[in-house]
Amino acid sequence: RYTKLFLILFIITSIIFIIFDAIKINGVILQAIIPEIILVILTIFIINKKINNKQYSSNNNLSFSLYLFLVYYIIYIKVNNMQKKKIIILVCIISLIIGIFIYYTYNNSKIKNITMDDIVSTYKNNNYTVIYTGELNDDIKKLFKEWKQTYLLKGYKIDISDEDLNSYLSTYNLSVTSTPAFIFYDNKGILGVIDSTIDKDSYEKYIRKYLYNEIPQDEIAYKTTTVDQYIKKVNSKDLTLAIIGEDSCSYCKMLLPVINEIAKNKNIDIYYFNKTTMSDSDFNTLTNINFTIPAKCTTTGEDTQMNRGFAKPMALITQNGELKDCILGYYDYDTYVSKLKEAGILED
What we know:
The protein is α/β, with parallel strands linked by helices.
């Protein structure tokens, strides 16, 4: 309740109600029409006052649905004994369906203004969310419409100062140097931010980075190599870290940005093999190195040979032709760094 949309729907539904109740059902009786019109005008005044005071309800959908159901039920009772009740009921049902369709279409396309207190509940109720910190214009509205169609991003707007914005972002180790900014979320939390220093032509690569863990080409820090070159690394005296994953593995996609950040921040070589993009012969050659994967890195809890298959993402730490250690699965940045320290890849 207490939105302009609700006010419009209330007026339309009231007109329909008065026509059917005061004219079609009871005839043109002023004793019925005048009080109902007065009540409608009074209610419009109250709703409009609430709108101006921004006293929004937290459950617009439920209020709207209950209101339409109540109106339909009253009309149904009123026309229950009329000869033309089926036609009138049909008209009412069609009106309700159209009203509901208009409501949800409008509600889903509208860029809502939220507050800091609304952020958590907002992103938890959507798969993907983007919050804009500037003033809305036609270009931003068009951009939001495109993002919704392409990426299923639900757009919102927030009024926030630059100081408060950076204070909020700092809790996630993020910041912006220039506003306005776009803040991206999935239903678990913040994914990243794009500020006004980013060129509009680069928006897509950042969105795909945040939503799909696709690392832009100019930010890739991990290394790729041929299987033959990797085997030479395996047989060298240096500790070598290689990770094997594939596109169909969700944990592999989640881990890739983590190892990319580690490779960049710690300045170490991390090799990544993507089974999906490898030829069968290359992947067979890779697995035929035939290390014995220890129980801690298998799903069965038992040692197994590498060429018999293994879970992914699998990190292999090798030296002098031997498997020195392994790491199975996804971990966040700090945990993965700790595990690499334990394996001797990183120094304490």
